[in-house]
Write a structure and sequence with these properties.
- With 84 residues, the protein is of the alpha+beta class.
- The protein has one domain (2-79).
- It has helices spanning 2-14, 16-22, 26-39, and strands spanning 55-58, 72-73, 76-79.
- Strand 2 (72-73) and strand 3 form a beta hairpin.
- Helix 1 (2-14) crosses helix 2 (16-22).
- The radius of gyration is 12 Å and the shape is globular.
């Protein structure tokens, strides 16, 4: 369930077309592994109700367009909150 929500957040941040291409990359697979191994185990929706805690998710060689409004910079997405 958290993986699905995470994917929805990424798709909303990068846009549908770019997300379709992103899912085909090794960078996407590495980011999902990073999410599974580093972020998800410590996920607690009650720990950070204001969304101040930040996680940086890298998409190596994914060629994402920088979009500071959507927290994307240099193939890195800043995740501040993951609501279920």
């Amino acid at each position: 369930m958290l993986n699905k929500k995470f994917e929805e957040i990424i798709e909303a941040a990068v846009g549908k077309e770019q997300f379709i291409n992103l899912r085909k990359t090794e960078g996407y697979r590495l980011a999902m592994r990073q999410f599974d191994e580093s972020i998800k185990p410590g996920f607690n929706p009650f720990e950070d109700p204001e969304g101040k805690k930040k996680h940086f998710v890298n998409f190596p060689n994914a060629n994402l367009k920088d979009d500071h409004k959507n927290s994307i910079n240099a193939n890195c997405f800043t995740l501040t909150q993951l609501k279920t």
